[in-house]
Amino acid sequence: MGSCNFKSDSIETTQSISKSHFQFQYGIGKGGFGKVWKVEYKKTKGIFAMKEMSKARILSKKSENSVINERKLLSYLKHPFIVNMQYAFQDRENLYLVMDFMPGGDFRYHLSRTKRFNEQQTKFLASCVIIGLEFLHKNGVLHRDIKPENLVFDSKGYLTITDFGIARVWTNENAKDTSGTPGYMAPEVMCRQNHGVSVDYFALGIIIYEIMFGVRPYLGRSRKDIRDQILAKQVQIKKEDIPSGWSNEVADFVNHLLQRKPVNRLGLNGPEEIKQHPWLQDVNWKSMQKKSLVAPFIPSEEDNFDDRIHSDNDPWKDADSDAIKQSTVLLQNNSTQELFNGYYYDITSANESNEVSNKNKPNKAK
User: Fold this and answer.
1) What number is the average pLDDT over the span 299-320?
2) Record-annotated residues binding ATP (predicted)?
C-alpha cells in the first residue's frame, strides 16, 4: 500500500511564485473560503489584492471545481471593467489568487455608509456594470453573482466586477448549474431552469431598485422565502412610487430588468438593447470605456474597507466543523492535493507566451 503522507512534490514544481514573495499588509475582505488581503509584491513593489482560500473549506463545500474554473476563466478574461488576475499559486493548505487592487472598496460598503446615491450617480455606476457584463457575455460567460459586494471601485470611481467563483461558460443545458445569492437571483435560476445572459441584468435591476428605495424588492430569510415572493408577485414600480428626484425613465428601466419571464426581460437580446433604453440615451459609452469621464462619486482616499476585517485573527476560528476537520486530514493525501493541479498563473509568463505565439502566427492574407 502507498503512503498517505503528504509529499511536497505533489504541489506543482513549475511554480515560481509563492506566499513568501508578498508582504501582507491587512485584510480587506472575507469570502466563503478565506480572507482577502492587501499585499505588496516584493519584487516590483506593486500593490495587489490576494484572496487566500483554505483548501479544507473548499473541500468541505465540494467546491474544488469552482475554484479551478475561476482561475481558468480569469486566465483569458482581461478587461478594464473587471478585476483582473495577476498571479495564482498554492501551498499545502491554501490556494492564492492575486488580483488587481481596487482602493475604492466594494459598493456594499459605500451603500451602507452613504445610504442613497442619486440618479446621476446610479446611472454612471450601472453603465460601468453594463460595460463589464457586455465583455463577459460576448466571451460566453455568465457571472451569475452580480451584487453590491462583487462590484468594487477603482481609484477614479469606476465600478469593476469581481468574484468569478460561480461564473460559468454558457451552455444550452445549464438547469442543474444553479448558484448565486438569493436576493439577486433571477427566477429561472431559483427554479433550477436553463438560464442565459439576462440573469445578470435581472441582478442589476435588483441593485438599482435597492439604491432607489433602500431595500431589495424581494426579501426573506431563506432561498425558498424569496422564491415564493418572486413567484407570487411581479415587482412593478408605479409612477406614484418613484422617489423624489428620480425619473420615470429609470423606473421603466428597472421594471423591464425585473421581468420574471426571461423572454420579457430587457437584455435578453444583448447589451445593445440595454444601451438603447431611454434612460441611458445620454451615456457617452466611448468615454466610459476609456474611463475618461469624471465619475460623479469618487471614494475618498481614506481607507474604504470595513474595520472589522482588518484584524489578523482567523475569522473562522470559532466555526470549525467535522467536515472541515475531515477535509484537513484528507489534505495529507497526494490524491486529494491532485484535485488542485493546474492552479497556477503568472501574468508575466502568460504575456511572454502570447508574444511568442503572435510572432509565430502567419501573416493574414490581404
Assistant:
1) 58
2) 51
